[in-house]
Specification:
heterodimer, A: about 290 residues, mainly alpha, elongated, B: about 325 residues, globular
């Protein structure tokens, strides 16, 4: 990995960009993600009303109009503005949960694959146990007990998400550590830590990055389910929460302007990351399929 | 590793998983804020004597580790505690709900496996064609659509606007059935939308698995041999390719049981289908923690047990798995 000049790196990046842009899925995914990132960043400029402000009794459950682009909910809050603000929560939870899971998962996978033996056996049995347990019921119970907050949801999703990354990283490490350059580094006296993080890790990063992007999709999805069940942070507007209120207020089948847009937003953002992830997987790891 | 060693290892891991799950279930609910006796006794005017009685009656006065041992013993004999809301043993409530969940999950899983395998095989066989593009695209999109939201849309369009299907439940309330046939017709009518909702969630996964497994198989030498022998395409597709592509699909299907359950929870909630998923939701809303705990534990045990049997079945079917141990 090391010893290559800057120009070599640049050509590799250009090569990556070219094959990525050739993938329709990747481009669509990147565009969808970008759309929502822009929405989250420029939310204050894009909203037409204060999304937290209750409306007057005459402004309750109004269908879309020029005043309320996507109508209002049962307490008169503007749905379009809530939708815009909701992007931030989804992206924040998605990135942080997937990031934490990626760090834990790669470390465990690296240690497990590198050391082998008892350490490997022990860590992989823990992974087995995590993988054997159905994650949504566990998330529901944890969220119910820990209480509704964004941080709890991030931690819950990350704690249940790292094992798949650990497994993938481990199997990569097993093949990478047999390669000659690792042996060479070992011969010149490199320590275990430096072998793991300097020599092996860079070769695992392509796999981890594709897997992490997929995990962002998963995390956003799971957050929306938890919020839909009423386990979301009541202090922040999220798309799942909007659907929760539409569902519990009993008008979800009639007020289409309230129940369709948030779900569509979740679907598009999740699909964006999923497309991006599988395109990255194809470009970075042509011989490796995760799903 | 021999067959016996393989079974022993699987039994050990399954037992350990169950033990950890039960322990987590115990300790998690102990960190809930508030005095459990107060929780049981909703009246704020409860006397000190009454609270002391409740503590003794439910063993809350004993040290934590004694409570833990009692909890494990009671769980193992199937006593999951008392539901605040239904005022009867949690196990009774669960026993009433479990058949509904199994009916819904079972039928949806069977239908989607069959359709998924056929669609996936066709897509893999015709890789790169328009058929493949449509099937592949449909599968990817449906697996990532929020299932509960698809349910809401189905309910809105077919239940509310078109009035083609009921808005929820298993049977029409207060209906009388002249025959067993009309009863099942009613159940089936109620089950149609939830089934479609679940198909949306399950189908794509099976299609994608079967397709990628087909692509692997089609690259094998024996397919080339079969072609060289001049066998008919249909024979190659069904006898040579599909058959061999099935094993990995069966293998992966059961690993996805957690995902099967996740779909069922969402669907049951939206369609008020009185199964375990809806029960979890209801107990969550009503803060009936023993019931939530019980429903969760039963769901988890079902998944873990099913995983265990699936492991045994393919260990038996595919000797490579038990010899190789783990990859």
């Amino acid at each position: 990995m090391r010893g290559k000049g800057k120009s070599a790196l640049r050509t590799r990046f250009e090569e990556f960009l070219r094959s990525f842009l050739a993938s329709k899925m990747g481009v669509i995914g990147a565009a969808l993600v970008l759309l929502f990132v822009v929405m989250a960043l420029f939310a204050p400029l894009l909203v037409t009303h204060d999304p937290y402000k209750l409306g007057s009794p005459e402004e309750v459950l109004l269908p879309p109009s020029s005043e309320f682009l996507l109508g209002t909910d049962n307490v008169g809050k503007d749905i379009y503005s809530q939708l815009v603000v909701g992007a931030k929560v989804s992206l924040l939870i998605g990135f942080l949960a997937a990031g934490i899971a990626a760090v834990i998962g790669s470390t465990v996978g690296l240690v497990s694959g590198y050391y082998g033996g008892i350490v490997d056996n022990l860590l992989m049995r823990i992974v087995d146990i995590f993988m054997a347990v159905p994650s949504l019921p566990v998330m529901i119970v944890l969220a119910a007990i820990l209480g509704p907050s964004i941080w709890n949801i991030i931690i819950i999703i990350a704690v249940l998400g790292w094992p798949s990354t650990a497994r993938i990283v481990r199997s990569q490490v097993l093949s990478v550590k047999e390669r000659p350059f690792v042996e060479a580094a070992r011969c010149i006296g490199a320590s275990d830590l430096s072998l793991m993080f300097r020599e092996i890790m860079p070769n695992v990063i392509p796999v981890v990055s594709a897997q992490t992007v997929m995990m962002v999709a998963n995390a956003i999805y799971n957050e929306s389910v938890l919020s839909f069940l009423g386990l979301g942070d009541p202090l922040h507007i999220s798309w799942g929460m909007m659907l929760h209120y539409a569902f519990t207020s009993g008008v979800m089948t009639t007020a289409w302007w309230w129940s369709i847009p948030p779900g569509l937003a979740i679907a598009l953002l999740v699909l964006g990351f999923a497309f991006l992830g599988s395109a990255l997987n194809e470009v970075l790891n042509p011989r490796f399929r995760t799903r | 590793m021999g067959w016996k060693g393989y079974i022993a290892k699987k039994v050990a891991i399954t037992a350990l998983t169950l033990f950890i799950l039960i322990s987590i279930n115990f300790f998690l609910f102990r960190i809930l804020p508030g005095d459990p006796a107060r929780l049981l006794f909703k009246s704020p005017k409860a006397s000190k004597e009454a609270l002391a009685y409740i503590r003794e009656r439910f063993g809350i006065d004993k040290p934590l580790w004694v409570q833990y041992l009692i909890y494990i013993r009671e769980t193992l004999v199937g006593n999951f505690g008392w539901s605040f809301v239904y005022n009867e043993p949690v196990m009774n409530v669960i026993a009433r709900r479990l058949p509904n969940t199994l009916l819904l999950i079972g039928s949806a899983a069977v239908v989607s496996t069959v359709i998924g395998i056929i669609l996936g095989a066709i897509a893999g066989w015709k890789k790169g064609t328009k058929t493949d593009f449509i099937v592949f695209g449909f599968s990817i999109i449906t697996t990532w659509l929020p299932s509960f939201w698809v349910g809401i849309i189905l309910l809105m369009v077919f239940g509310w606007r078109l009035r083609m299907f009921p808005l929820g439940g298993v049977t029409t309330p207060a209906a009388s059935y002249p025959s067993i046939f009309s009863y099942w017709a009613d159940v089936l009518w109620h089950m149609t939308l939830p089934m479609i909702n679940l198909l949306f969630w399950y189908l794509g996964e099976y299609v994608l698995l079967m397709r990628s497994s087909m692509l692997d198989v089609l690259a094998e030498d024996y397919i080339v041999t079969a072609r060289a022998k001049g066998l008919k395409e249909r024979v190659i597709l069904i006898k040579h390719a599909m058959r061999n592509a099935l094993l990995p699909v069966v293998t992966l299907t059961t690993i996805n049981l957690g995902f099967v359950v996740a779909g069922a929870i969402q669907t049951e909630i939206v369609f008020s289908w009185p199964g375990l998923g809806r029960l979890m939701y209801d107990s969550l809303v009503m803060r009936d923690y023993p019931l939530l705990q019980g429903a969760f534990l039963i769901l988890a045990i079902c998944v873990i047990a099913a995983n265990f049997f699936a492991d045994l079945i393919y260990g038996y079917l595919d000797p490579r798995i038990r010899v190789r141990g783990e990859e």
